[in-house]
């Protein structure tokens, strides 16, 4: 029987903690959420030796145990709760060699909790180049622990780190310094009030409650003479504690660390000069965005065509070899097109996450935050809002969560409210298919594809609307909170391929399985609704059509099409669609698009799948979704349904409308009330309707 | 009294007493403490925020926060 221990990885942001986790655990990691909150939880079980396994938990990055966000709070809540099933037997603090001084603050705090704490110093491969020397033996002695030099980039030092974890019981539990020295009298009385508790943990509970404003977690025993301090006094003490810790750290590093200052800078300054230049900085940022969107459009069209064709062939194949009947119809007309409608987004989503994770990994994202802060503040947001707005191009859900990094509540709220305007990947398939129908596939000046330019304009429209509505929201919102802004400017680094690949795989997977379930379910429901009808009209469609039309002039095929479309019109979905058709006709849509829009409220990407299902029910021939759409006829105006006018109107409707239940749910979770998601739902969708209406009426 | 906000590009200074409760704790945790050295590396295009090197940590803060932190200039010449 082998033993299993809990290992927790803790560290500052930008120390490569996640790469360390990846190197330790490989691909067998599990990604989920902490119960009740949407903070990502990454864990894995690894084998350390023949009879010792470890459950490794990658905790959110934090600069200290004084948490200011939900993510950081996860770390401290776990470290304070001995009864948690994940409570660590040993903590590994991941730090990076160039920011050791700052990283040690967190280390000393955790060490003072009385847990075995290993210090893993990452990026050791940069030491020579940066002229850094470290006396490990002396450092171990001063910090009372095991210190390991590792390099996640070169995959070095991990065997030694594992050895240290195996021997965790040999690590001293002696703290680095006694926090109680910052106010002896206060801590003395605290100890008297709770004689059985560890002092530093008590202190953290108190400061946490001050930070998060929930002051009655621990009732103070009535008989004690303990006098609680005011919040501002506690804040002073926290400052004092931080200063004291830095004094210890400075003294320790003075003895152990030497740095050749001539080698230390150089590259950073050179790259900075260009990337945050007052003109070139913005030019480069725009160029990078443009490049990303062009590449996504160009590169993903090949795998997408391939996926589209493959699913079509699969349907054909199943139809041929399965006994015909209801089950075969469900599979070939409901399930396979439904799954195809999910898989087809995979290339774009993968490319988008590829670029975003490269921008994050290289350290460029922080420069964008720096460049954009002043500009974004004009629109009621922070430079940090750029990260949510850019990741909003992948999906609004992680983007709304990314707004947590924004310290000021008002700026954060405004960012959350406007993020759904950015063009998320779920809009992309809708855009792509409509653009391919109504915008010519030609090149402007023989260079830029018109379709690509349209897509770029739609992205800019999304950003533009987000920014303008941010300005509006900040004028309307009467929230007055203290704002502040602290951003670390990390060193430039080449992205680690492994990290980028893991991010892409993980995000794409969670999209396919998360959103995929909804899409598949809706496809099946739609198929059922489209394949059955409530009245005689549906069940006797054949006879009715035959009796109504002069069959002699029609071929067999034309008759079949007529029957199918008559059936569809009298199916459940046909009745529902035609009931709401008057709402959508002024925008240039028919009832089929109406149904697709309604089902899009579950998730926008359902649009294409819905049309695929509806059309494949109405049409047996082997055609791609795009060709089926091109052949649709406008029921009122005649002529093709998808014209320039109705296409643009539809594009604008999808650009502005709030059509994502999951986003509404996450906004409710992050803001704590239904007020904001409801404002988004009605405000955005109403605006979308009006704009689409005006566009169609002008262009038609 | 000089503050971080009044530094010029490339100037170095020593951080003085910090008396404001408005200074975020996060800034202290990043090493912005009395006695530590601060260097103004770069000012963003619209004159805000500021790009600093404090105690070997590179970070960026807004002018409104920088104004709260008193410094004493070092004559580097």
UniProtKB/TrEMBL annotation, chain A:
GO cellular component terms attached to this protein's record: plasma membrane
Recorded superkingdom: Bacteria
Transmembrane regions: 279-297, 335-359, 413-440, 452-473, 511-532, 636-657, 677-699
Pfam families: FeoB_C, FeoB_N, Gate
Binding site for Mg(2+) 1: 22
Stored InterPro entries: Fe2_transport_prot-B, Fe2_transport_prot_B_C, FeoB_GTPase, G_FEOB_dom, Gate_dom, GTP-bd, P-loop_NTPase
Membrane topology of the entry: Multi-pass membrane protein
Location in or out of the cell: Cell inner membrane; Cell membrane
A GO MF term: metal ion binding
FeoB-type G domain mapped to chain residues: 4-171
Record's keyword terms, sorted: Cell membrane, GTP-binding, Ion transport, Iron, Iron transport, Magnesium, Membrane, Metal-binding, Nucleotide-binding, Transmembrane, Transmembrane helix, Transport
Binding positions (GTP): 11-18, 36-40, 58-61, 122-125
Chain positions recorded as Mg(2+) 2 binding sites: 25-26
Entry-linked NCBIfam families: feoB
Family indicated by similarity: Belongs to the TRAFAC class TrmE-Era-EngA-EngB-Septin-like GTPase superfamily. FeoB GTPase (TC 9.A.8) family.
Function description: Probable transporter of a GTP-driven Fe(2+) uptake system.
Alphabetical list of PANTHER family matching this protein: FE(2+) TRANSPORTER FEOB, FERROUS IRON TRANSPORT PROTEIN B
UniProt protein name: Ferrous iron transport protein B
Source organism of this protein record: Psychroflexus sediminis
TrEMBL record, chain B:
Keywords per UniProt: Iron
Xref: SMART domains: FeoA (SM00899)
Any Pfam family matching the protein: FeoA
Gene Ontology MF annotations: transition metal ion binding
Superkingdom: Bacteria
Domain Ferrous iron transporter FeoA-like as annotated: residue spans: 2-73
Record protein name field: Ferrous iron transport protein A
């Amino acid at each position: 029987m082998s033993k299993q221990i809990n290992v927790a990885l803790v560290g500052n942001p930008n120390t490569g903690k996640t790469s360390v986790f990846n190197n330790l655990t490989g691909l067998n990691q599990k990604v989920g959420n902490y119960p009740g909150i949407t903070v990502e939880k990454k864990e894995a079980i690894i084998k350390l030796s023949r009879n010792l396994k470890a459950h490794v938990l990658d905790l959110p990055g934090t600069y200290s145990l004084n948490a200011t966000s939900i993510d950081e709070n996860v770390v401290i809540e776990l470290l304070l709760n001995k009864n948690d099933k994940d409570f660590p037997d040993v903590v590994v603090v991941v730090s990076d060699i160039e920011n050791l001084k700052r990283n040690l603050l967190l280390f000393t705090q955790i060490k003072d909790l009385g847990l075995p704490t290993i210090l893993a110093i990452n990026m050791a491969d940069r030491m020579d180049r940066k002229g850094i020397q470290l006396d490990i033996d002396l450092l171990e002695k001063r910090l009372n622990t095991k210190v390991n030099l590792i390099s996640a980039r070169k995959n070095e030092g991990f065997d030694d780190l594992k050895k240290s974890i195996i021997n965790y019981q040999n690590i001293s539990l002696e703290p680095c310094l006694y926090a109680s020295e910052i106010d002896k009298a206060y801590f003395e009385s605290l100890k008297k009030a709770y004689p059985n508790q560890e002092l530093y943990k008590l202190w953290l509970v108190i400061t946490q409650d001050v930070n998060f404003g929930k002051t009655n977690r621990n009732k103070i025993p009535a008989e004690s003479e303990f006098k609680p301090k005011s919040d501002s006094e506690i804040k002073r003490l926290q400052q004092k504690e931080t200063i004291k810790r830095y004094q210890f750290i400075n003294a320790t590093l003075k003895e152990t660390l030497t740095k050749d200052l001539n080698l230390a800078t150089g590259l950073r300054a050179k790259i900075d000069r260009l990337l945050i230049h007052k003109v070139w900085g913005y030019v480069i940022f725009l160029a990078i965005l443009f490049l990303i969107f062009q590449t996504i459009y160009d590169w993903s069209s090949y795998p997408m065509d391939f996926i589209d064709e493959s699913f079509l062939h699969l349907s054909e194949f199943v139809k041929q070899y399965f006994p015909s009947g209801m089950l075969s119809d469900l599979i070939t007309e409901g399930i396979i097109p439904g799954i195809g409608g999910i898989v087809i987004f995979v290339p774009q989503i993968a490319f988008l996450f590829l670029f975003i994770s490269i921008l994050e990994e290289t350290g460029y994202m922080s420069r964008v935050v720096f460049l954009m802060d002043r500009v974004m503040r004009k629109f009621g947001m922070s430079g940090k809002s750029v990260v949510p707005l850019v990741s909003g191009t992948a999906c609004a859900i992680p983007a709304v969560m990314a707004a947590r990094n924004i310290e000021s509540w008002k700026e954060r709220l405004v960012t959350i409210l406007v993020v759904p305007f950015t063009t998320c990947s779920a809009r992309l398939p809708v855009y792509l298919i409509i653009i391919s129908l109504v915008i010519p596939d030609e090149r402007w000046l023989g260079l830029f594809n018109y379709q690509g330019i349209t897509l770029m304009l739609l992205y800019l429209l999304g950003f533009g609307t987000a920014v303008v509505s941010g300005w509006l929201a900040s004028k309307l919102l009467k929230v007055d909170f203290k704002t502040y802004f602290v951003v670390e400017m990390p060193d430039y680094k080449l992205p680690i391929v492994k990290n980028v690949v893991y991010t892409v795989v993980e995000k794409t997977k969670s999209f396919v399985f998360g959103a995929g379930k909804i899409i598949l379910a809706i496809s099946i429901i739609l198929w059922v609704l489209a394949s059955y009808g409530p009245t005689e009209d549906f069940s006797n469609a054949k006879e009715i059509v035959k009796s109504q039309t002069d069959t002699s002039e029609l071929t067999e095929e034309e008759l079949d099409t007529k029957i199918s479309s008559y059936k569809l019109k009298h199916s459940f979905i046909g009745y529902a669609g035609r009931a709401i058709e008057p709402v959508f006709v002024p925008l240039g849509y028919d009832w089929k698009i109406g149904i697709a829009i309604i089902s899009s409220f579950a998730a926008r990407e359902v649009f294409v799948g819905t049309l695929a299902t509806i059309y494949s029910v109405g049409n047996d021939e082997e055609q791609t979704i795009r060709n089926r759409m091109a052949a649709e006829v406008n029921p009122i105006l005649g002529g093709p349904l998808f014209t320039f006018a109705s296409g643009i109107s539809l594009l604008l409707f999808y650009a502005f409308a709030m059509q994502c239940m999951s986003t509404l749910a996450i906004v409710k979770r992050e803001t704590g009330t239904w007020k904001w998601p409801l404002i988004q739902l009605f405000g955005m969708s109403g605006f979308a309707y009006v704009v689409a209406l005006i566009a169609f009426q002008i262009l038609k | 009294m000089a503050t971080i906000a009044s530094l010029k590009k490339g100037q170095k200074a020593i951080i003085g007493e910090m008396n404001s409760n408005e200074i975020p704790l996060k800034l202290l945790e990043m090493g912005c403490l009395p006695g530590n050295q601060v260097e103004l590396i770069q000012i963003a295009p619209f004159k805000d925020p500021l790009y600093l090197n404090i105690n070997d940590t590179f970070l960026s803060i807004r002018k409104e926060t920088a104004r709260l932190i008193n410094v004493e200039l070092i004559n580097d010449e």
